[in-house]
Queue: 2 jobs
Job 1
Amino acid sequence: MAKKLAALDVNNCIGCMECMFACSRRVGRIGLDKSAIRVRSAGGIERGFVIVVCRACENPPCAKVCPTEALKERKEGGGVVLDETKCIGCGFCVQSCIVGAMFWDDERDKPIVCKYCGECAKYCVHDAIGLVEA
Amino acid sequence: MLMKVEDMNKVLYIDLTKKDIRTEERADLFDAYLGGTGVAIKLLVEECPQGIDPLSASNPIIFAVGPLTGLYPLASKTVAMFKSPLTGNLGESHCGGRSAIAIKFAGYGAIVIKGASDIPLYLAIAGDEVKFRDASSIWSMEAVTVGRVLREVEPGAGVRTIIRTGTAGGKMVRYACAVTETYRHFGRLGLGAVMGSKKLKALVISADKSVEVPKTKRKEYKRVYDEIQDVVVKSDAMAKYHDLGTPGKIYSMNKLGGMAYKNLESARAPEKVARELSGENIAEKYLSRRISCAHCPVGCVHLASLRELYAPGYYFKTSTMPYDNETIYSLGFMLGMERAEDYLRLNDTVDTVGMDAISTGVTLAWATEAYAKGLITKEHTDGLELKWGDVKVYSAAIKKIVEMPNEFYQSLAKGVEYASSVYGGQDYALAFGGNEMPEYHTGLACYLNNLTGARHSHLDSAGYDLDQKLIGTDFSIEEVASALLKEEEWRQIPSSLVVCFFARKVFTPETVLKALGAIGLEGWTEDKLNDIGRDIHRAKMDFKFREGYDLTKLRIPKRIFEVPTPNGLLKEEDLRRAIEVYGKMIGR
């Protein structure tokens, strides 16, 4: 079965950002700017955190607005896959994602798309995020 | 944006007088001294003229991170260095939050801030772009409000830190702190006062870069990263600091009889008080959230929430405040609080004005005793009747320390060393080397640590830890001095890398070498680390001695010889001799 990434329990999140570092490491970068997952405070740390991940939508808006079909719906489990060779960097996908889970790579001028690989979840010691059946 | 491992040597120099900046590659410093404290002390010596007033424009502020910052778990701290307005010599304070990550991924190894502005300013550093911005409208604001304003007004590219002062900083209370991410602090030795003297209210630092791991190193880097992560996650420290946080040992320290209580009237609070102020009790009743510094899975930061009646007619307010081992000691035990919620209220007040909680608590504890003994009167205190456990009076006193309505509060704002030199009561003015004491009354080692440590902090050489190991054993003064020196020398390495001291057992010499090697920093050996640890420590001591620190003139309050420690009564002649022995070991 296809998997997708999900925020399992945002109350467990301590804001360590290890998930973001893990996601960036996949492309050989140490930092936060290549991450397809974001953790930020919910308006003051005392209110806790917001975990922004791709929801693996069925009939995903980002794919619908992509003018070059660079973003295509995944075969099963919802969500999208990106064909970078087709992407012209228009950024419509970012605008279409109302949960803000489509991030942008300024260096390459392409979206950063979650691949549902679960690498980030491996580093979430507190079980705030995880892979689930899509 | 892309950054290479070797790009981490960049120093950003900011001149507040000229409102000008420049950057310089300082591989000379980073190659030789790693980063953090090692590089910061070299920059301090370069930038700080001898004998200056710490509150003058010539005092530099240096923030430094290290080669491991952001690259491995728990490498999450920033080192700040400056000449301390409290002790008149080395000012060094460490802080986590997001500060280290933001500085590193903004592209800097260190930031040096010199000069003083003519108008209130804050600095907005977004990667390579540095803006000087007018802070007139936020100058007299509390630290938490400054954070709120700047979060809104400054675009947040990537991840950022907001380092700011509260009202105490602007008034140059000599132990004013700097606050990051609302709940973390560059607490000790007066960074907030130095920022205040420069009319610098805050720094917003945003990260916009990431470091490329060379292709040939990726596998090795990930392997070493995973090894470190694994050790951290499975270590006792992880469970200990995550569950109860730093206050986990409060109760046992009191039971041991090593906890300074009511200005060290005794070293053990009554059982009822100890239970009330224990980490367990505060967690059960008030813990509302655990958070972590960026890139640390431990989450030792504990926040408490307190719901209280604000005004009649069901007006409740809920305040959130961080709580820690040292603040429970200084604002709870030292000031004789009998209820945890009173401690939390006082902690909130101290946090609101932005002062170091240890210095505040110890200074007020001295004032309370001096008041009881008639050395100071209501005239001095501006009408306040200082009394153990009275949270309202202490809160009012804290606000007066900031406002300084008279000479007495002006003196309190300079710390207990100064205040007791004016009003007397030096026998029970519990400062060492000019810095108010940490909680421990455990024996010879903790006081030798307090007196000779470069920062006069328990974290310099962990004397309290050694004392506990020595209980019931025979030991010589030489052994104690030598063990502390060795510990302090080694601690310069985690402080230069920079990794959190809670991870000091994870980052063994072997692990440090592996971690450096995996990011392409080759050529380090355990001997070389030991050598630079010693060099960095001596450089810090040299700075202290240059600025007037003198082992033969250290004032030791008599009180510590009158109250038994878990190692029995400490003798002044032993402590004096230990200082002498320590001095010889460092060639002084």
Job 2
Amino acid sequence: MTCLPAHTDKRLGLVIDLDTCVGCQACVTACKGWNDQGYGAALSDQDPYGADPSGTFLNRVHSYQVTPHDGGTAKIINFPRSCLHCEDAPCVTVCPTGASYKRSEDGIVLVNEDACIGCGLCAWACPYGAREMDQEAQVMKKCTLCVDRIYNENLPEEDREPACVRTCPTGARHFGDFADPDSTVSKLTRDRGGVPLLPQLGTKPVNRYLPPRPKDRPEEASLLAPLLDIKATGFAGWLDRMLGKLD
Amino acid sequence: MKPAPSVILFTTLSGLGFGFLALLGLGLIATQGWPAFFHWAFGYALAVGGLLSSTFHLGHPERAWRAFSQWRSSWLSREGVAAVATLLILAPQALSDWLGLGWGQGFGILGAGGCAATVLCTAMIYAQLKTVPRWHHWTVPATYLAFALTGGLILAGTGLWATGAALGLGLLLAYGWRVGDSAFARAGVDLASATGLSGLGLPQVFEQPHTGGNYLMREMIFTVGRRHAAKLRTLTLILAAGLPALAAAILPVLPALILGGLSHLAGAMAQRWLFFAEAEHVVGLYYGRTSGKS
């Protein structure tokens, strides 16, 4: 049934730290790799080695240039974009077949691929572009929060988190339960002022993005600052004083 | 949004069909015997043909029957249920008219309500989407209903009634385009709120996340032909409203019906093409699209 659950016991999701993400695309390839061999239809590619390659991905990393409001030097922000497992997920309610659903136990939004007719309306309803229709299987694919990893007792415990989180070399991605105020993701969101995306559309996303920390201002503090105040001694000091007098 | 031919055929043909069936159901086209048979058959052919063409854009049409199950939450499901129910409810009326069974107008009146409900559901599939600000407006269901009514009146050969409806449709189209053009700006969404980076400064796309195309770009960031929008709007007004209104007012019934009907259908298809091609999806923001630019 594609009505949304009134309450979910857990609210599993991701915190993505835009301060530490370096845009290496490791999460993109880890996601593609894991989802090529386990849950549901594999993520296909079309013309992968040809002139016009494209394929299905559940995670894409954008790069934005952000210019401060008061002028100053622009920064490059790497921005991973994937399903935010919304509490009020419009992709679920528009589904005509019941293939799209949100789990009441942990809030993960999933697609039952056997019931998906491939109409694409759920992808239209999602503001975040989190759903892509697989061109090979002709069913809708989306982030499963690696539901086949996080509860998988055949995996070592440290691997029981989404592939993108497990692989991130800078620790920019965190997985946990937002319904638990003491979880890492809840604490990070509180401490760092985590934000939802497009809150005005009423989707109530679970995932949060941590804004980048303010960086050094180059015009205020030179990188050479520790070297600028050195007083030469001995012969170099005498030479320094003598040359100074020549002005 | 990508204007898929199957969806343009579906919405225009089934809209026209249900408009015509509604007038037959209400008994506004008085026919008996074989003329009644052909009238009803024509209405059913349009409606069913449109519905069938909608399955051509599905990835798995063989599972389409599942789409009747989620009417509690999904407008697409409601549309399917309403369409089939309406076609079933109208069947006894069609039989009664054809064979002169004298079963009154009850089924027809109920079915006419079903026709309106079906067209409304079709429109709500689009109007419900907050992600496409141009569609998230009352003018969308009003336009779909106006097209069904106008098309029905033209095909029914109702003369000045058809003229009036066509002129009303033209006004509604012009108003819809006017409010639609500023819909994206009014929705108050931009790259800053899409990325949550507003506190840091003004974000712009530095580099795209992938060098090739993808499903999102092909399906939702469709921009081809927007520069012809002004010409197509004029053409739509002339074909869908102007010519049929004139034909219905001055020509005898049969030529008015054929010329007006064909012109109106061509205009409806042009309007529906624009309806998709001009609609901008919020996800385009992530790829650097801003309203009004293509």
